[in-house]
Amino acid sequence: MNIDLIFVDKPVIVFVFLIVSEVSRILYLRGAEEHWSGGVSTLVILCAQAVECWLKILPQTDREPWTMTLNPIGVWTLDGDGTQLRQVMGRLVVSTAPRGFHSLTEPVNRWLAENSAGDGLLTVFLRHTSASLVIQENTDPDVQSDLVDALDRLAPEDINYRHSLEGLDDMPAHVKAMLTGVSLQVPVVGGRLDLGTWQALYLTEHRAQGHQRSVTMHYLGT
C-alpha cells in the first residue's frame, strides 16, 4: 500500500502571507467605509499575481511526492476470501508482590495458544485503579527498579493528599496508575503477541502490599 504525501511549495506560503499582510494593512489604514472596495480589489490583484508566479515556478520543480510503502503482515476481509474473524474473551488473575513489575507475556501467549489464535488484535484491560499495564524492557531488571523509583518521585507519599482512607501509599498509587494507564492493545501474529525483542507486557503493582489483580483479555482475529 502506498501513501502519497503532497508537497506545499514555499512560494505558495509566501504569497498567502503577502495577501494576508496587505489586506490587514489596508483595513488598518482605511476607515470602515472605504476598506471593503479597496481591500477586495487588492486581494483579487494579489491572488492573480500569486497564481501567475506559482504557475511559472511549478513546472520547474522536479521533486517527487514522498512515498511510504507499508508491507502488511496479514490481510483479510470479513467476506470474499473465506477468512472468518472471531473474538474470544478471558480473564487472568495475578497475585502481585509489593511495588513491582509482573510479566504477563507468557501467560497471555499461553491463553492465545489455548484458544487457537492466529493473526489479530488483543486488548488487555486491568480492572483496578492502583496498578497499571505497561510494555517495557524485559532484560535488565535495573530498568524496572529505576522506573519504580521514577514513579515514586512523580507521586511521593509525603504529600498531604486528601484521600488517605486506605493508607499513605494508596493515593500515590492512583496517580501512578493514571500516568501509566490500565489498557493496552497489542497485535497478535502467528498466535503470539507481536512484541519486540526487548519488550514484555507487564502488570505494574503500585501499592506497598501485594494484591489480587484481574486482567480482562479480548482477542479479535483469525
Provide structural commentary.
By secondary structure, the protein is an alpha+beta fold. It has helices spanning 10-29, 35-57, 105-114, 141-154, 170-180, and strands at residues 2-5, 66-69, 86-95, 100-103, 120-126, 131-137, 183-189, 192-193, 199-205, 212-221. Helices cover 35% and strands 28% of the residues. The strands form three sheets. The protein has a five-stranded antiparallel beta sheet, covered by helices on one side. It has a three-stranded antiparallel beta sheet with strand order 4-9-6. The protein has a two-stranded antiparallel sheet with strand order 1-2. α1 (10-29) packs antiparallel against α2.
Layout of helices and strands, plus pairs?
Elements: E1 2-5, H1 10-29, H2 35-57, E2 66-69, E3 86-95, E4 100-103, H3 105-114, E5 120-126, E6 131-137, H4 141-154, H5 170-180, E7 183-189, E8 192-193, E9 199-205, E10 212-221
Antiparallel strand pairs: 1-2, 3-10, 4-9, 5-7, 5-10, 6-9, 7-8
Instruction: Specify the helix fraction band.
Output: 25-40%
Number of strands: 10
Mean pLDDT: 80
- Biggest β-sheet: strands ordered side by side in the sheet: 3-10-5-7-8
Number of helices: 5
- Integer-rounded radius of gyration: 29 Å
| Secondary-structure element string | EHHEEEHEEHHEEEE
Strand content bin: 25-35%
Unreliable stretches? 1-9, 63-70
Please tell me what the overall shape is.
flat
Largest sheet: 5 strands, antiparallel
Category by helix and strand content: alpha+beta
Distance between the termini: 22 Å
Defining key terms:
single chain; three-stranded antiparallel beta sheet; 5 helices; 28% strand; flat; disordered N terminus
